[in-house]
Q: What sequence folds into this?
């Protein structure tokens, strides 16, 4: 169906106009970000950076010096300078974990053990106090490791809860359990995450007995686990619903008990079907961790914002936000791409997911 | 599956589950009562009628700090949330539809740009986008050097000022006439959808113009405009939108647009190619095929995820507290900090949002049930 | 084992208001091969699925291998160990290999060791004539092969009774033969079988008894020779004429 001439002229005109606008925008951005940018500032007599050069270039050129000055703080928060190799390793470990988990070749039960090992290792590295590592209290942690910890531990620790809730929702003959599962999911999904974070940070101390105190980060982590559980439960439920009934019947006919059938036949298939959805949900969690800014926990977003508030570096928010955007985008975009790839692969029914022995 | 739902056993499991939940709630309540008593914090919702020393920057109803009650302050919070949620949903739907259609456009560059927009905005946290837009709106010039894109419209770092039409009694009648005109047009448009002749089909929309115009002519209300004018360092008069509101609305709309665009695109793409071809084979022009055959089917696929995006927008508006816009969460937060009654505060926030989300869910179920009945 | 392998005593079942099983009384002796036939909606599949409690009955008693059917989990598990089932849509586990499909239940339910379970699986796979497919995944096999694996999987539990729910109805015509051959061989080895099927040739060849059902009731039953050549009830007559019409 070839378009008629007027349509093609219109098409070409729109393309031309868009291209011109795009090039103009790109030129301005390029000029601001590279050509007229200030890459570093000299240090004054007292050793502190002298930002006059940057101020003079406001509006014309980017001040990348702020990144140079602040980037360790943005990445690692208040973690002791000399010990920052530890959170750096933690970030690398998480990246490795994600890469492994998104590769179908490694989808076997041993992966769970790997997850547990990595999470344990992260805890050891961040806290220290053992194996000759210096102890670093949780309120000194900050930046990218916190974002990764909140999202990943949130996902990992809420997964068993999510599976139980999803199974509970479909349990026939157990109306109370069904009701509890539905109530949990609808409650958590109906309220904004911020209210859950408030609940954890302000209400939780009231619920605990006298003397027991949980640090702020742990409270936020609990809120995330609760939050993640409800959303993941819906994803698992979708997977369970997509499974043909015959699978349950065949497992039952063979004499497998409910839990045996669920563990060996139903769940492996259900979870495999919803892996793209799981990844997308995780991307959402990753972005949602930024909300801890509001309750004063120093994740990547908070350290970034705090960096812009220092009086000396006031007004260079855009440069910092661009750095944050680059980091978030790198993680989220990569995971989104892989999720789409996995989705395509999972939709080819004649290709088995695992390579046969 | 015929689970072994033997009565005694089933009852046992359920009793256990309920027992655990009840036990946890009991422990929490006891501890909470203890803590609250120790700190001399009141319980209950009595604070709602206490005077509220909360400064509120913008509100749709009258409010005086330290004279008006907490209850009123919280109501203003709810109104402020709606003030951003309703225009937000409308704008996001509009923009999202445009971007979604652009994604399917045969103009390659347009489709690519739309795809880039969607990808970019979905892979960045909303909070980051809000902080960015807030920064942008704060770098606008001071009121004295305000930008004037249109006569009477001023854009500065204190917000947007536009001329305000002073509401006359006659306007209420015009508003009703407008609503009536829209309803009538809907009715007529359905009747004339297949009529030949563009003039007839357009004519169905005449009541939207005619009815309000007739009411105006009848009542002749006076038009009085309140023009904003610079007094000292800021503007007086006219209607204003604070930079906080503008930043929140802009960020929310642009972010939600990217999701709406994907939903619209997905819905349109999912309608089988065969439908287009069948419509064309029947001799219908492309526009009619879109309107009468493809769109109704696409809508069925679009509306459920779209309502869940509306819900997300309402929940996301709670990020207002990070940029200083006083929505419900922001005012409730201040309230619970001042009164110390954290439990009631958080419970209130959750109750309001929960009722909004349950309402939307119910409406959605109603719609789905209707569709299921139509499908037979 | 004394007594019949399967006994139905005045069994009734309702789906909501629909009375799908009306007073079914039936005995299947050990080693007997029974074919259940009838028009769709007659309740024959439901009757079959009641035997291993994939469906529950509301009234009456069902006794399988001397044990009365109930919801008590241990009794249920014991009954399901001794009753194997082959489904119309195969229901193989797609995420497990053919061998793993066959060894799953023997290991988890009968408590066999892995080596023993695999040896047994290979034996049965050989019996259904596809031992070479042991390492493949169900998606890589044809329909006929998949159904034969399903039969082997059920046999690996060494059940006393085998139930077949329209085992060839979902197969392309050229694959029906290979599955029927396996079923014939199984029948001739003395397995107690209850099969719901339209394959009248199979019934004639192997069945001891054919039971005809219509609208939830057993209308007529008897040896295949009698049923096919001298049907007594008008409903059976009209059913047979429809079937023969199709052939």
A:
């Amino acid at each position: 169906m070839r378009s008629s001439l007027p349509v093609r002229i219109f098409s070409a005109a729109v393309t031309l106009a868009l291209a011109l606008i795009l090039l103009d925008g790109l030129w301005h951005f390029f000029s601001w970000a590279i050509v007229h940018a200030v890459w570093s500032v000299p240090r004054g007599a007292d050793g502190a950076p002298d930002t006059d050069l940057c101020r003079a270039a406001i509006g014309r050129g980017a001040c990348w010096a702020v990144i140079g000055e602040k980037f360790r703080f943005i990445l690692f928060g208040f973690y002791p300078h000399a010990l920052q190799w530890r959170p750096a390793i933690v970030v690398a470990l998480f990246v490795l974990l994600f890469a492994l988990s998104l590769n179908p070749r490694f989808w076997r039960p041993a992966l769970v053990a790997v997850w547990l090992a990595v999470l344990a290792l992260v805890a050891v590295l961040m806290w220290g106090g053992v194996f000759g590592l210096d102890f670093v209290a949780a309120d000194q942690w900050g930046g990218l490791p916190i974002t990764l910890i909140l999202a990943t531990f949130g996902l990992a620790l809420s997964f068993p809860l999510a599976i139980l809730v999803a199974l509970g929702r479909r349990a026939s003959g157990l109306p109370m359990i069904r009701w509890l599962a539905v109530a949990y999911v609808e409650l958590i999904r109906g309220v904004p995450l911020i209210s859950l974070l408030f609940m954890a940070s302000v209400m939780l101390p009231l619920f605990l007995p006298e003397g027991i105190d949980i640090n702020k980060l742990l409270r936020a982590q609990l809120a995330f686990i609760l939050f993640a559980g409800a959303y993941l439960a819906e994803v698992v439920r979708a997977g369970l619903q997509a499974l043909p009934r015959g699978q349950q019947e065949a497992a039952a006919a063979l004499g497998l008990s409910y839990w045996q059938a669920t563990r060996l036949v139903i769940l492996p298939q259900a979870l495999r079907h919803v892996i793209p959805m799981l990844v997308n949900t995780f991307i959402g969690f990753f972005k949602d961790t930024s909300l801890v800014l509001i309750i004063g926990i120093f994740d990547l977003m908070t350290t970034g914002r705090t960096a812009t508030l220092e009086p000396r570096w006031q007004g260079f928010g855009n440069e910092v936000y661009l750095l944050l955007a680059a980091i978030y985008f790198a993680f989220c975009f990569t995971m989104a791409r892989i999720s789409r790839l996995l989705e395509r692969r999972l939709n080819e029914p004649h290709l088995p997911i695992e390579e046969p022995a | 599956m015929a689970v072994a739902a033997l009565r005694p056993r089933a009852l046992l499991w359920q009793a256990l589950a309920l027992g655990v939940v009840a036990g946890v709630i009991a422990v929490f309540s006891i501890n909470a009562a203890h803590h609250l008593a120790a700190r001399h914090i009141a319980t209950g919702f009595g604070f709602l009628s206490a005077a509220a020393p909360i400064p509120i920057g913008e509100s749709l109803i009258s409010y005086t700090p330290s004279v008006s009650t907490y209850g009123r302050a919280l109501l203003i919070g709810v109104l402020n949330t709606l003030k951003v949620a309703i225009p937000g949903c409308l704008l996001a739907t509009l923009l999202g539809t445009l971007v979604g259609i652009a994604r399917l456009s045969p103009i390659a560059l347009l489709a690519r740009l739309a795809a880039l927009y969607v990808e970019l905005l979905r892979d960045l946290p909303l909070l980051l986008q809000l902080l960015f837009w807030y920064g942008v709106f704060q770098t606008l010039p001071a009121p004295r050097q305000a930008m004037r894109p249109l006569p009477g419209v001023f854009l500065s770092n204190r917000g947007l000022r536009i001329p305000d039409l002073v509401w006359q009694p006659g306007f209420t009648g015009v508003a009703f006439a407008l609503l009536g005109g829209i309803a009538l047009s809907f009715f007529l448009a359905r009747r004339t959808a297949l009529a030949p002749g563009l003039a007839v089909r357009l004519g169905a929309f005449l009541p939207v113009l005619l009815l309000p115009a007739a009411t105006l002519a009848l009542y002749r209300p006076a038009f009085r405009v309140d023009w904003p004018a610079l007094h000292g360092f800021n503007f007086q008069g006219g209607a204003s939108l604070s930079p906080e509101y503008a930043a929140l609305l802009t960020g929310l709309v642009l972010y939600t647009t990217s999701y709406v665009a994907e939903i619209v695109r997905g819905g349109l793409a999912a309608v089988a190619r065969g439908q287009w071809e069948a419509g064309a084979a029947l001799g219908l022009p492309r526009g009619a095929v879109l309107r009468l055959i493809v769109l109704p089917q696409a809508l069925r696929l679009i509306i459920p995820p779209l309502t869940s995006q509306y819900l997300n927008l309402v929940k996301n508006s709670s990020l207002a507290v990070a940029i200083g816009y006083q929505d419900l969460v922001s005012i409730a937060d201040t309230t619970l900090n001042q009164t110390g009654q954290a439990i009631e505060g958080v419970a209130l926030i959750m109750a309001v949002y929960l009722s909004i989300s349950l309402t939307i869910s119910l409406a959605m179920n109603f719609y789905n049930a209707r569709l299921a009945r139509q499908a037979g | 084992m004394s007594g019949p392998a399967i006994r139905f005593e005045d069994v009734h079942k309702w789906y909501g208001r629909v009375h799908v099983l009306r007073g079914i009384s039936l005995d299947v002796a050990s080693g007997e091969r029974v074919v259940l036939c009838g028009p769709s909606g007659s309740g024959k599949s439901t009757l079959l699925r009641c035997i291993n409690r994939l469906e529950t009955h509301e009234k009456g008693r069902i006794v399988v291998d001397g044990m009365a059917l109930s919801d008590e989990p241990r009794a249920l598990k014991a009954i399901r160990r001794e009753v194997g089932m082959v489904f119309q849509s195969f229901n193989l586990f797609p995420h497990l290999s053919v061998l793993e499909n066959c060894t799953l239940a023997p290991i988890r339910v009968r408590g066999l060791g892995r080596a023993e379970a695999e040896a047994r699986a290979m034996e049965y796979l050989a019996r259904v004539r596809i031992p070479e497919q042991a390492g493949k995944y169900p998606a890589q096999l044809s329909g006929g092969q998949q159904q034969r694996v399903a039969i082997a999987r059920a046999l690996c539990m060494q059940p006393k009774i085998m139930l077949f729910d329209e085992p060839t109805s979902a197969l392309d015509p050229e694959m029906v033969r290979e599955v029927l051959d396996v079923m014939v061989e199984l029948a001739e080895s003395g397995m107690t079988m209850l099969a719901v099927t339209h394959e009248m040739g199979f019934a004639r060849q192997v069945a001891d008894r054919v039971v005809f059902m219509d609208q939830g009731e057993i209308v007529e039953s008897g040896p295949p020779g009698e049923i096919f050549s001298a049907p007594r009830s008008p409903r059976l007559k009209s059913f047979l004429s429809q079937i023969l019409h199709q052939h």
Remarks:
- The two ends of chain A are 48 Å apart (CA to CA).
- Chain A touches chain B through 59 residues (CB under 8 Å).
- The CA atoms of residues 172 and 312 of chain A lie 64 Å apart.
